[in-house]
Design brief:
With 62 residues, this protein is an all-alpha fold. The chain has a domain at 22-52. Helix content is 44%, strand content 0%. The chain is built from two helices and no strands. The protein has helices at residues 25-38, 40-52. The longest helix is centred in the middle third of the chain and has 14 residues, at 25-38. The radius of gyration is 21 Å and the shape is elongated. Residues 1-24 are annotated as: Disordered.
């Protein structure tokens, strides 16, 4: 068992499969979370842009 200087076991890092195909349900879960995290900032930027212009795509009713 590997220990650090402080006497704490390090947490293993998840490594996705080399071929990009999930080996089991755990891989499928982590790969889905990883893809969602990659696009998180893009989704936030889109949401802020919509908030800045609330009339975007809405026709005026007169």
């Amino acid at each position: 068992m590997t220990m650090t200087d402080a006497g704490v076991k390090p947490i293993p890092v998840y490594a996705p499969p080399a071929d990009g195909k999930p080996r089991n349900a755990v891989d499928a879960k982590w790969m889905k979370l990883h893809r969602a995290a990659l696009h998180y900032m893009d989704r936030r930027a889109e949401a802020k842009a919509k908030e800045a212009d609330p009339h975007d795509g809405v026709e005026a009713r007169h």
